[in-house]
Write a structure and sequence with these properties.
By secondary structure, the protein is α/β, with parallel strands linked by helices. The chain has one domain: Rossmann fold, CATH 3.40.50.2020. Strands 5-4-3-6-7-8 form a six-stranded mixed β-sheet, with helices on both faces. It has a two-stranded antiparallel sheet with strand order 1-2. Helix 3 links the parallel strand 3 and strand 4. Helix 1 packs antiparallel against helix 2. The two termini are 28 Å apart.
Length: 205
């Protein structure tokens, strides 16, 4: 992707996320129990067709450029599945999804995964990487192989390093620092908001 095209894409995504209220500042407790000074909630982008289309198109371009030979796309419920489904249709790849909760002796994947298949994982965000790894194990139980995972935004809190140790490459459309810098340059967030993200990431690098 050309530099100018990507810069415009990130700018449009950043502006859309702010308008959709997907980026919030304050004190939040993340699913893992840790507190954060900011929160990214991408559930609501489905209500904004233009923003949703931009996210799907961006992810499609990213996956096709990095994992064009993959055999199947695996969505990580629930948010990852909303990106993986249209992506799989666009790339003409089989779609499956990981079963992370409520499994009582059944399969860890809904859909067909054939032995030896290269399966790409798709989620909306990456934080620690634990959910992505759990999904990879579900795929591997079915005989598939996971070499890469794709997310819209990386919160830069250890996922890339954790996944790399397991032989999985993490690709993101953007990370939270680039997103924050873009929003600040567009005067869509305040300087203290930018600092809160920078400090949050800095404490975890």
């Amino acid at each position: 992707m050309a530099w100018r095209t990507r810069r415009q894409q990130i700018g449009n995504l950043a502006e859309g996320l702010v308008k959709a209220g997907a980026l919030q500042f304050g004190t939040f407790t993340l699913p893992g129990g840790r507190e954060s000074s900011y929160y990214i909630n991408l559930k609501g982008i489905l209500s904004y067709p233009g923003l949703y289309a931009l996210a799907v198109d961006s992810m499609t371009r990213l996956v096709s450029s990095k994992a064009s030979r993959a055999n199947a796309i695996c969505g990580i419920p629930l948010n990852g599945l909303t990106l993986a489904a249209p992506l799989a249709v666009s790339l003409k790849k089989p779609l499956v999804y990981a079963v992370l909760t409520g499994r009582t002796g059944g399969r860890g994947v809904e859909g067909e995964v054939r032995p030896g298949w290269d399966v790409v994982l798709v989620d909306d965000l990456s934080t620690s990487g634990k959910t992505i790894l759990s999904s990879a194990k579900c795929v591997e139980e079915e005989g598939g192989e996971v070499k890469s995972a794709f997310v819209l935004i990386d919160r830069m809190e250890g996922a890339r390093e954790r996944l790399s140790k397991e032989g999985i490459s993490l690709y993101c459309l953007t990370d939270v620092l680039e997103l924050a810098d873009t929003l600040f340059s567009m005067e869509l967030i305040r300087e203290d908001d930018l600092r809160s993200i920078t400090k949050s990431v800095g404490r975890r690098q």
